[in-house]
Fold:
Amino acid sequence: MNDQPLHPKEIYRVLPDAMISLADWDPRETRLALGSKDETREATNALNAHLEVLQELLYAENKHRILVVLQGMDTSGKDGTIRHVFEGVNPQGVRVISFKAPTTRELDHDFLWRIHQHTPGKGQITIFNRSHYEDILVVRVRNLVPREVWEKRYAHINAFEKTLVDEGTTILKFFLHISPEEQKERLQARLDDPTKHWKFNPADLKERKLWPDYIRAYEAVLSTTSTAWAPWFIIPADRKWYRNYLIASILVDTLKGLDMRYPQPVDDISGIVIE
Ligand code: AMP
Ligand code: MG
Structure:
């Protein structure tokens, strides 16, 4: 009998051959919550403390590289995830890269050119706030390049990520899944709260109108690019506290699985006396 509790890593992972229909994934559910909202928040704080220690070890060992990809609709909580899940982690070993619409110089190159140069080095965690996936999401929805060009990118992305993984990178990809109702509330909050006005971008309303197209584009991404080497996780993200708990759990579990060690000192230091 296996009475181990189910881990978010199993429940929310997209299996490589799955055909994803997002209608089957409820953005509001909280089925692995540890009791109440506050109890789950406490568990997240404990995970956060654990993440700090693991990140220190990752940095000291200077061997593994960690790439975290965050994708989701506007207001899905990409920034909030970074703020909460990585709170207290030593900034020296963590970098956040936010990908915006490409510059003309970036557009002069292939779509992975601007991505590759920001992948993590040894001992580092890099968080992509949006990513190369925009090149088969917004680019597909908005017809920014012809279909013949973007439809080849699924395979290119899988091959690119395989290269990174074969060379020592661990990749975790999180789709922050919110409902259109929740997005409406979050956009409204940006209008109502003067301290959130800066976040309100009228262009987000145009994207919101394309919701069904984005869902279709995300379904294609999730069904085609969740590989054995670089899995996607579909994170129910209407409840921020639950979203944070799931992502912190999956990160901590993954880092623990790397079996990291502090490096041995170069010389025998047992006889050293500091005068
Ligand atoms: P934000 O995340 O709110 O700062 O917005 C960044 C914007 O950049 C979003 O509207 C993205 O869709 C857009 N963006 C990011 N990457 C690309 C890309 N490769 N091509 C076109 N637009 C992009
Ligand atoms: Mg935005």
